[in-house]
Amino acid sequence: MSIVTVQLGQCGNQIGFEVFDALFSDSHCPQGLCSKRENEAYQASCKERFFSEEENGVPIARAVLVDMEPKVINQTLSKAAHSGRWKYGQHSCFCQKQGSGNNWAYGYSVHGPRHEDSIMNLIQKEVEKCDSLNGFFIIMSMAGGTGSGLGAFVTQNLQDQYSSPLKMNQIIWPYGTGEVIVQNYNSILTLSHLYRSSDALLVHENDAVHKICAKLMNIKQISFRDINQVLAHQLGSVFQPTYSGEGSFHYRRNPLGAFKDPALYTSWLEPVHAFSVWKTQRAFSKYEKSAALVSNSQFLVKPLDMIVGKAWNMFASKAYIHQYTKFGIEEEDFLDSFTLLEQVIASYCNLGF
């Protein structure tokens, strides 16, 4: 079962490189905790899921790289090729010479329709290389123009053209004190559109990852690469081959049973289905033992409410709205986004009651 990754914008392409590099490094780490057969099966599963292989034996990432400016894509291709371990395909990239100017509307309404055929053709060619397609992994930011606006457009097209395979978007939540003045507008438009077209949103907050770098890793001068490598490690721990542990796991021994807070549970989900365990005997990366938790919870309610509130304040004064309306995003589109996200907030706040 293979996954096709779509890297969008500067953020998506930089993180995408680190993800593939982390996956390759992990699959080739020396192992002493599992048998040779188990290790070879792990490596083969990782390769089938994320890489194809050309004649010279160098694995090629199952990925499509998209950006409206060539600089980051050229850097990403070069770094992968110079690693000598894996690389991107020669014809898996699409870039132009004009960016989106941090304008979601320009990425969605201009770049999207203009380059739809070229981008979707690249994705189709990558899909055709898979013996069995499991889904799409779309990496993007939500505060800029290309990654967010074009990313939302591409995700919508993937839903239309590939309705069965899973579409998961990994989105980067902007810093609370970001430098892009319209990042809250871009964020609500991104989230509302992805809510309609994506099957799952995997969210990482820049502020939270920054704290990991500063407090847990003791990095003094934190760079975006430091942040991206933390993200890649977390994503790798989630996506690397694992096997269902249900046969040796019983809900009564589930540690969640010790927590009685009703906010942790919902009335419409049976406890036995509320917590799934997947595991492997093989160590992940350089760690003898590790665990990753993916949860659908209320932790995003506060940051989402803050972004919606800030966007509402700007919208009430009509600030920068003209930059969106001139590219086809009307005030009604903003109101629809506000309405949808406020309903999402209310639904999460009501969990457990």
From TrEMBL:
This protein's UniProt keywords: Cell projection, Cilium biogenesis/degradation, Cytoplasm, Cytoskeleton, GTP-binding, Microtubule, Nucleotide-binding, Nucleus
Species, as recorded: Lipotes vexillifer
Localisation per UniProt entry: Cell projection, Cilium; Cytoplasm, Cytoskeleton, Microtubule organizing center, Centrosome, Centriole; Nucleus
InterPro entries: Delta_tubulin, Tub_FtsZ_C, Tubulin, Tubulin/FtsZ_GTPase_sf, Tubulin_CS, Tubulin_FtsZ_GTPase
Record-linked PANTHER family: TUBULIN
One of the GO biological process terms: cell projection organization
Residues of the signal peptide: none
One CC-aspect GO term: cytoplasm
Family affiliation: Belongs to the tubulin family.
Pfam families the UniProt entry points to: Tubulin
SMART domains: Tubulin
Domain Tubulin/FtsZ GTPase: 47-247
GO molecular function, one term: GTP binding
Binding partners and assembly: Found in a complex with TEDC1, TEDC2, TUBE1 and TUBD1.
High-level lineage: Eukaryota, Metazoa, Chordata, Craniata, Vertebrata
Alphabetical list of Gene3D superfamilies matching this protein: Tubulin/FtsZ, GTPase domain (3.40.50.1440)
Function: Acts as a positive regulator of hedgehog signaling and regulates ciliary function.
Name this protein carries in UniProt: Tubulin delta chain
